[in-house]
Specification:
With about 160 residues, the chain is α+β, with helices and mostly antiparallel strands. Helices cover about 45% and strands about 20% of the residues. It is a multi-pass membrane protein. It is found in: Membrane. Its main location: membrane.
């Protein structure tokens, strides 16, 4: 009852206040969702400016149209601005460990008790695998965090 009275007293501007609050909340809460609901409130506010004195423009109709527009705008926003980006030509960008899987290298140090390290390019990487002497050719089988799992190449 209080909200109905407030909306009646503020008139069409109540929708614009709601829209402003939703758009401001979008800045704080990322996710590109509240913007569509805020735009629906802006549209209802603009239509309310034109139709406020019309007999059929009751608050119930405004709420129904607001809900419908919110859904429509959210679906359109998701369709045209959603996360359906094209596949990257650099799938391992910022995932250096994953980009090393499949590479081969020579151990500069032996692997003792299943642990060691290997030098790839300009970086020393911790490795797990069976005990192997220095000089063994290995292939990187997987990466977990910063640790690589290796296997001997000639087996």
């Amino acid at each position: 009852m209080m909200l109905q009275r407030l909306a009646t007293e503020l008139g069409p501007w109540s929708w614009w206040i709601v829209a402003f609050m939703l758009l401001a909340a979008e800045l704080i809460a990322p996710g590109v969702f509240l913007i569509w609901i805020g735009l629906a409130a802006l549209v209802i506010g603009a239509v309310s400016l034109l139709l406020w004195d019309a007999v059929f423009w009751a608050w119930q109709l405004q709420l129904v149209l607001f809900a419908a527009l919110s859904v429509v705008f959210a679906l359109l926003g998701r369709k045209y601005f959603g996360r359906n980006r094209a596949a990257s030509d650099e799938p391992f960008l910022n995932q250096r460990e994953a980009s090393l899987v499949g590479r081969t290298a020579t151990l500069q140090e032996p692997i003792v008790e299943g642990r060691g390290r290997i030098r790839l390019d300009d970086t020393w990487w911790p490795v797990n695998g069976e005990d192997l002497p220095a000089g063994t050719r290995v292939r990187i089988a997987s990466a977990r965090g910063r640790t690589l799992t290796i296997e001997p190449l000639n087996r």
